[in-house]
């Protein structure tokens, strides 16, 4: 049986939560790409500016953040009963609920549901959960073609690329690159296509319209699910989600178990927080909600797949569980100096940036993503930007304490602890520190093997007088 509280992590070999190399190695490659850095800087700066303006309009923005955080904390504390209530309401409304312990089980459930319809193609609403479990790859392996309908996700799919941002998956691409992808991969595109944004959007619209009208099966994620009513909600900006959620005969929704909210009224809070924090809009252009099946209106078969995939293990950690409060707004990415320079691909996970640095290691187990908790300067900008007040820096420090450390680092820390515990040795070490400017690289580093630490950090100048010397002189 699948039950909350099981210690299982997201399985290896499936999905997109683990990278092929560590963050430092992947970031080094990204930092060497000046075009990528220009694209990222332009996009994040633009979104930050819009977000700052619309949040400043609300005199109760901080109160809204506090209420959002409280609602999420309540949800995590009552998750089992809320999910059971959601299942009851969805079933009563004519839907079918499936419980998936991990990515393998979720992929199997969705594949079997699509096969049962006899169809060979599905249209997809942008979904982080389906990216997380590698659903597109699983469907393709079963002979089923998934078609992404979100413009940015379509760009990523056609470019055989990977998303690099939670909200704007193709943030690392500029319009000239997108034009080349469309010319190379999009069927029936006009060879005279320019890189003017309206022209690119029109080309995608023509391609997708036929797909919408000829594909009777859709797969979506969900931003929220209301336990009180069994209602699912998707918010988006383009209208593609509305098409996928209303035109097909069969709708399959894959949702992480943390997305549930207790009451219908709770949406009042999150539908104010999410658009302002994510896209800098006062409200999102399209909010689609549905409750089960309604005869003659919309899909006539609805399936909800509730996905665990390591979330119960995260829930079991009193410190790390607040990472499950995330509403996928991407505000933390847009203010993070590390993300802005390294980009999303360096994180090796479908969840990049500060939230990915705390969520991915917990879903997979820290040993599988040991470098991610260090992909941060701990500046705290992410905490200030988060609409539900997730203390990401505190979780990062917590995960660093649980991450495996190299033998040399453990030996160095043990030596430091030994020295600091002995006043005479500590005083001698302070005197020796004054020599760092002489022996270090450009006066700011340390000699090997300690140079590994100062290769990416400036060593602070030692004071001309230590506290001990000051105290002794008085």
Automatic annotation (TrEMBL):
<dbReference type="Pfam" id="PF02589">
    <property type="entry name" value="LUD_dom"/>
</dbReference>
<dbReference type="InterPro" id="IPR017900">
    <property type="entry name" value="4Fe4S_Fe_S_CS"/>
</dbReference>
<dbReference type="InterPro" id="IPR024185">
    <property type="entry name" value="FTHF_cligase-like_sf"/>
</dbReference>
<dbReference type="GO" id="GO:0051539">
    <property type="term" value="F:4 iron, 4 sulfur cluster binding"/>
</dbReference>
<dbReference type="GO" id="GO:0046872">
    <property type="term" value="F:metal ion binding"/>
</dbReference>
<feature type="domain" description="LUD">
    <location>
        <begin position="83"/>
        <end position="293"/>
    </location>
</feature>
<dbReference type="InterPro" id="IPR024569">
    <property type="entry name" value="LutB_C"/>
</dbReference>
<dbReference type="Pfam" id="PF13183">
    <property type="entry name" value="Fer4_8"/>
</dbReference>
<keyword id="KW-0813">Transport</keyword>
<dbReference type="Pfam" id="PF11870">
    <property type="entry name" value="LutB_C"/>
</dbReference>
<keyword id="KW-0249">Electron transport</keyword>
<dbReference type="GO" id="GO:0006089">
    <property type="term" value="P:lactate metabolic process"/>
</dbReference>
<dbReference type="InterPro" id="IPR017896">
    <property type="entry name" value="4Fe4S_Fe-S-bd"/>
</dbReference>
<keyword id="KW-0479">Metal-binding</keyword>
<feature type="domain" description="Lactate utilization protein B C-terminal">
    <location>
        <begin position="402"/>
        <end position="474"/>
    </location>
</feature>
<protein>
    <submittedName>
        <fullName>L-lactate dehydrogenase complex protein LldF</fullName>
    </submittedName>
</protein>
<dbReference type="InterPro" id="IPR003741">
    <property type="entry name" value="LUD_dom"/>
</dbReference>
<keyword id="KW-0677">Repeat</keyword>
<keyword id="KW-0004">4Fe-4S</keyword>
<keyword id="KW-0408">Iron</keyword>
<dbReference type="InterPro" id="IPR004452">
    <property type="entry name" value="LutB/LldF"/>
</dbReference>
<dbReference type="InterPro" id="IPR037171">
    <property type="entry name" value="NagB/RpiA_transferase-like"/>
</dbReference>
<dbReference type="InterPro" id="IPR009051">
    <property type="entry name" value="Helical_ferredxn"/>
</dbReference>
<feature type="domain" description="4Fe-4S ferredoxin-type">
    <location>
        <begin position="323"/>
        <end position="390"/>
    </location>
</feature>
<keyword id="KW-0411">Iron-sulfur</keyword>
């Amino acid at each position: 049986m699948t039950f909350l509280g099981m210690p299982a992590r997201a399985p290896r070999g499936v999905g997109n939560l683990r990278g092929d190399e560590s963050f430092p190695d992947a970031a080094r490659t990204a930092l060497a790409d000046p075009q990528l850095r220009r694209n990222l800087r332009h996009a994040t700066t633009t979104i930050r500016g819009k977000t700052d303006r619309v949040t400043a309009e609300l005199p109760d923005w901080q109160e809204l953040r506090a209420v959002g955080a409280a609602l999420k904390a309540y949800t995590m504390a009552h998750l089992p009963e809320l999910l059971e209530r959601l299942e009851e309401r969805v079933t009563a409304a004519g839907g079918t609920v499936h419980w998936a312990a991990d990515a393998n089980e979720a992929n199997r459930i969705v594949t079997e549901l699509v096969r049962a319809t006899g169809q060979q193609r599905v249209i997809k609403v942008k979904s982080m959960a389906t990216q997380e479990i590698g659903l597109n790859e699983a469907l393709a392996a079963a002979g089923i073609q998934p078609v992404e309908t979100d413009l940015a996700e379509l760009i990523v799919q056609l470019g055989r690329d990977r998303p690099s941002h939670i909200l704007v998956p193709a943030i690392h691409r500029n319009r000239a690159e997108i034009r080349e992808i469309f010319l190379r991969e999009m069927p029936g595109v006009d060879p005279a296509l320019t890189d003017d944004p309206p022209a690119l959007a029109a080309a995608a619209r023509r391609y997708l319209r036929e797909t919408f009208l000829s594909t009777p099966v859709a797969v979506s994620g969900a931003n929220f699910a209301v336990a009180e009513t069994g209602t699912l909600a998707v918010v988006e900006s383009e209208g593609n989600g509305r098409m996928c959620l209303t035109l097909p005969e069969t709708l399959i929704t894959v949702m992480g178990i943390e997305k549930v909210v207790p009451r219908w009224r709770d949406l009042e809070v999150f539908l104010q927080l999410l658009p302002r924090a994510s896209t800098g809009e006062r409200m999102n252009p399209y909010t689609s909600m549905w409750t089960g099946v309604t005869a003659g209106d919309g899909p006539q078969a609805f399936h909800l797949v509730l996905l665990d995939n390591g979330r119960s293990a995260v829930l079991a950690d009193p410190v790390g569980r607040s990472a499950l409060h995330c509403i996928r707004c991407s505000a933390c990415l847009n203010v993070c100096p590390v993300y802005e320079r390294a980009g999303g691909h360096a994180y090796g996970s479908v969840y990049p940036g500060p939230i990915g640095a705390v969520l991915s290691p917990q879903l997979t187990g820290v040993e599988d993503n040991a470098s991610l908790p260090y992909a941060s300067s701990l500046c705290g900008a992410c905490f200030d930007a988060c609409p539900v007040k997730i203390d990401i820096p505190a979780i990062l420090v917590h995960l660093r304490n649980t991450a495996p450390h190299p033998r040399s680092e453990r030996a160095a820390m043990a030596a430091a602890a030994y020295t600091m515990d002995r006043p005479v040795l500590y005083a001698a070490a302070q005197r020796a520190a004054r020599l760092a400017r002489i022996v270090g690289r450009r006066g700011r580093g340390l000699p090997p093997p300690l140079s590994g630490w100062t290769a990416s950090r400036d060593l602070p100048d030692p004071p001309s007088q230590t506290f001990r010397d000051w105290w002794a002189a008085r």
